[in-house]
Amino acid sequence: MILKKTLLALTVVGLMVGCGSQNTDNTNQSTDGPETTAIKDTTAAQQQGVIQFEESAFDFGQVKEGDVVEHIFKFKNTGTAPVILSQVSASCGCTTPDFTKEPVLPGKMGEIKVSFNSLGQVGTQQKIITVSSNAENRVTTVQIKGVVEK
C-alpha cells in the first residue's frame, strides 16, 4: 500500500514538473530582448516627481490659548512625473491638514494648509505633519511650532 502511494506521488510530481517546463518554454517568449527591457525599466525609473517645499518649518511665535493658527506650506514638483499626495497626517488631533487632491504636474505648485487649535495646548509646541506621496521622496515632513500662553 505504501509503495502504491509513493509511486502515485512520484508520478504526479513528474507530470507537474514536465508540464511546468513545457509551459515555461511556450509562454515566456517575448519580442523584446534583454536590452530593450533594461531600457524600458531605466526610463520608468527616471520618470518621478519630487516634492520641494518652500519652507520645512513655520514658527507662529506666541499666541494665546484658544487661538487657531493657520499656515499654508507650498511645494513645487521639481521632478518629471506628476506627484499625487496619498496621505497627509498630523502628530496631534489639535492640528488639521488639508491638501491638494489633484495630481501636481511637473513644474507646478501644490499646497498643504495646516490649522492648529491651541485650546488646551499651553506651553512650547511643535507639531509634525507627515506627507506621503508617489514622489521620489515618498515620505517627508513639515512642522509648525511656537508657544501657547495661558
UniProtKB/TrEMBL annotation:
It comes from Sphingobacterium paucimobilis HER1398. Keywords: Signal. Residues 1-24 form the signal peptide. Pfam families: DUF1573 (PF07610). The keyword Ion transport does not apply. This is DUF1573 domain-containing protein. PROSITE patterns: PROKAR_LIPOPROTEIN.
